[in-house]
Amino acid sequence: MRSSQRNSIYGFTLIELGIVVSIIGILFAIAIPNFLAYRQRGRQNAAINDANITMAAIAGYIDEYGGKRIPKMSDLPKDLLSQISPNHKISIEGEPNKYIEVIVEGPKLSNPYVLKAILSEGVPQIIPPPAGDDIFNKLKIGHAVVSAPKEMNLNDKERVFLTVSLKKKLDELKKNLPKEHTVKGGKIKISDRMRATLHSLDFIISAENPNIQTVHSYSDTKWIWLIKPKSAGEHELVFTLCALGQINNLPTSIALETYKEKIKVNVELFDKTVLFLKEHSSWIYPIIVVLFGFVTYFIGVVQGKKEKRNGTEDKDGIDSSEISPDKEYDENESH
User: Are residues 142 and 111 in the same domain?
Assistant: First the structure.
């Protein structure tokens, strides 16, 4: 009886336990790396989100105060910054009117996340971060050229052009531009919607068509600006071309290319005279007024003396004319 009960007791064999442990180990080997990668992606997305919120706040600050100063975190609106994770340390670096960087650090981030943007007309234009690589790589290849005059006069106005095409090559695009212009360009990534901006501190710039345009495969896309120099000398124009898209469901612009053109601004003799008078008006105008007053006074004095002399001569002439006939009459009587 005891022997039958002993034989009926059943347990796992060592091989079966080994198989079960191996299966559990394989599941853990698959699940744990995926879980860690998922958690890391979540942390990275949180860093990207905080960087985008900060960049949006910086854009508002620059729009209000200009890009001459890189703001600090304490300068930004508190209602926007309250949305940032307390686990992240955010710093802002950059160079006024050139570029700006938002650096997100945290104890749970493997590497700091850096969101960089160039500053064009006070608007931060984001340079493609790692999250935007897929968008950047999917862009089509085309050509772009910029065209600007080599030189111009101070009081002249000239048109400058930026042209993008998906079909035409560089030589074909150059044929439609003014021959007296300097033309440069090359291959470039092109998106369906693009923004072009022109910036210079030495020119008055007015756009003749929208900065944001849709790029078609069947026609060229052209941006035109009218420029007027503010002063003489050699000045620089900066063209910036950006692709418009979305990163993490947030609208953004990816800076694709920046072109720089130098224009020599000449001054004619009349313009030089006008400029000289404007620059030194603080002391020239008072001298002119004093000289004018002195000349007026001198002319008045001379004119007064002349009138007085003429009056005296007229009086003497009248007396002599009255006496002379009488004398002649007396003389005739005596004879």
Answer: no
Q: What is the pLDDT of residues 210-257, one digit of tens each?
A: 999 999 888 899 999 999 998 888 999 989 888 887 665 556 677 778
Label the pairing between strands 151-153 and 250-266.
parallel
Instruction: Report the Cα–Cα distance between both ends of the chain, in Å, rounded.
Output: 207
Among 124, 142, 157, the domain boundary falls at 124
If asked whether residues 32 and 112 sit together in one domain, one would say: yes
pTM above 0.70, yes or no: no
Same-domain pairing of 75 and 107: yes
Sheet holding 221-229, edge to edge: 181-190, 140-149, 158-165, 221-229, 203-207
The structural domain count of the chain equals: 2
Is the C-alpha dihedral spanning 59, 65, 71, 74 positive or negative?
negative
